[in-house]
Design brief:
The protein is mainly α. The chain contains five helices and two strands. The chain has helices at about 1-10, 15-40, 60-70, 85-90, 105-115, and strands at about 75-80, 95.
Length: about 120
């Protein structure tokens, strides 16, 4: 245990940026490896993502989320633990539907149909 703690402080956490970078690299590698496994099993486009994030001009994230909720479409609103990235793009929050194995093309069509009511 002492050896592990020593290694942690000397190599992984001796510099906050280096520690965060190592964690980010490790999680990115794990994500990409899992993505390929799922892609091989399910079949998918090369650059597909299961998490989408968007803004609608003239509407708050909460307004969009509430209207979608009224139609039975669940999304998350806010910063989703991604505040630095959102701020990089000039936003404080966004609307985020998360797609999963149980979603179908009909779910996407329903989402788009409700989003069109904001136009």
């Amino acid at each position: 245990m002492i050896d592990r703690l020593t290694y942690y402080y000397e190599h992984e956490n001796s510099n906050v940026h280096r520690g965060a970078h190592a964690l980010a690299a490790r999680s990115t590698d794990a994500y990409e490896n899992a993505r390929q496994t799922v892609a091989d099993f399910i079949g998918t486009a090369a650059n597909k993502a299961s998490v989408l994030s968007f803004k609608l001009d003239g509407y708050s994230d909460e307004e969009v989320g509430n209207r979608l909720n009224n139609y039975g479409i669940a999304v998350r609103t806010g910063h989703h633990c991604a505040q630095p990235v959102l701020r990089h793009f000039g936003y404080e929050g966004s609307v985020r539907p998360t797609l999963a194995l149980y979603n179908s093309p009909d779910d996407i069509d329903a989402l788009v149909k409700v989003l069109k009511t904001f136009a």
